[in-house]
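User: Here's a protein and a ligand (adenosine-5-diphosphoribose). What would the complex look like?
Assistant: Let me lay out the input and then the predicted complex.
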Amino acid sequence: MSEGFKDPGARHGRHLVVLSGAGISAESGLRTFRAEDGLWEEHRLEDIATPQAFRRDPQQVRRARPNAAHKALAELEQHGFRVSVITQNIDDLHERAGSREVVHLHGEILKARSSVDYGLRYPLPRGGIRLGDLCDKGSQLRPDVVWFGEAVPLYAVAEEIAAEADLLLIVGTSLKVMPASNLYAAAPLDAPIVLVDPNADELAEPGVLPLAESAGQAVPRLVRHWLYQGHLGLPDTL
Ligand code: APR
């Protein structure tokens, strides 16, 4: 058991809450934002954060496939664990892997939504959104993506979910963007927090267990351990 880290094993907790970021999709071929070859290095923000720019990206997401990390989380759910995924990603790889409880804090690139009613969502038209494509309330459709500077409507939902965690697993996020980067504070004080990221040692706050590995390596190994022991206890050696 790693020194100083809380272990819910004694409680036999089985509710895993996951906070994922672009890094969990990196092994599916979708680039992250802030690595040396990240998207923000290549595009100006205003180029990306416009409806027109998303015409290119949906194809990339549709071609990508869930990787071992996405699949391992879905497998845990199939064996009697509750797995709540709170993701900053706008791809649908968690869903395509089989996860059934997914909250997209920053929206979903394969969806369009009403510009007056956040709850009105539609599959993204194959050819992208055109001026004149209207929601049921007659307003212009827009990509279902939260632009920089906009509110994150689902954050309160995410906090409520995190507050019920037996273990919080943070995977593949640089934790640079609020409010998502603050979510770990909503977890119960006695719930361990594990951070999976090649840069975990630099990113992990005190009390967070760093796993400096890729998502594709660390997440399946953790899931195998949890399936073996039947609850979310931390292995003695990670
Ligand atoms: N496995 C796990 N983590 C990885 C992997 C991998 N294979 N590859 C890279 N990473 C890590 C990087 O080390 C980095 O810490 O993933 C993290 C990605 O960080 P960012 O590129 O900042 O992406 P993210 O944290 O998801 O960004 C948050 O910022 O730009 C906005 O809206 C955008 O949702 C995004 C938000």
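Summary: The pocket of adenosine-5-diphosphoribose is lined by residues 21-23, 26-27, 32-35, 38, 88, 106, 172-174, 176-177, 196-199, 214-215 (CB under 6 Å).
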